[in-house]
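Hi Y.,

Following your request, here is the sequence exactly as I used it, all 298 residues.
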Amino acid sequence: MALDRETAMQVASVLSRGLPYIQRFTGKTVVIKYGGNAMENEDLKSSFARDVVLMKLVGINPIVVHGGGPQIGELLERLNIQSRFVNGMRVTDAETMDVVEMVLGGQVNKEIVSLINSHGGMAVGLTGKDANLIRARKLEVVNRSPELERPEIIDIGHVGEVASVNVDVIDMLTRSNLIPVIAPIGVGPDGASYNINADLVAGKVAEAMKAEKLILLTNVAGLKSKEDKVLTGLTAKQVNDLIEDGTIHGGMLPKIRCALSAVENGVRTAHIIDGRVAHACLLEIFTDEGVGTLISRN
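Below is the corresponding structure, written out as tokens. Let me know if you'd prefer a different format.
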């Protein structure tokens, strides 16, 4: 059945609006941190996979870095292993690290790979341990308190930060028309595994790859002003001012600092977008309006 004239014009308009963006971003790298509601709702999972496949088909090189905190917590609970957090980070002893590797490198990673491939993509799953993709160092948590004579170093186990990224591995995959899907597990100098925050891994991968965009999928509409309005476009300086005056605070701070680091180290733009919106990635890349907050260096 043929489209009626009005519907046909709407479809043609949508398709033609994407052309300038496709021309601008062909050959560019986009790093996407995938997590939150977008990983849990079946319709959102499907729309995310279709977005990633379409990006690859029009010449963009998507790289997916995923989280999996709720899935880790669920399995730990089933195994009667108690979870403990320090400054929002999971204390990760050897037993917990085994579970983290099982969930992130096995269950979650393979589910995402299968999801993308079922929609026509060619995704490959790996952790930061594969080919020494993500070199890590142990993260030190410092407790500074007026009651203490000197800062206290808190050991939170196998929790790390990114020391370096092996871009040759990612380049090889993207040149082979593959979509890398990376679990945020790094390897230390002694071969030990480290659990690393997925936002930080995505940011450091974007920096190392000199990506065009870093996209962080969240469960919020974007950065908001004190009047509760979404701030759609900000410079790094404006973001720092919003941190200083307390507009940006709490749980959003780590994501924002990750985005700031990215744009200050070679990534053209960082995006905090609403992963609860279907096709959020396509809307952010291929429209002027987007579905969140864009942060640029200047």
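The chain is about 40% helix and 25% strand.

Thanks again,
Q.
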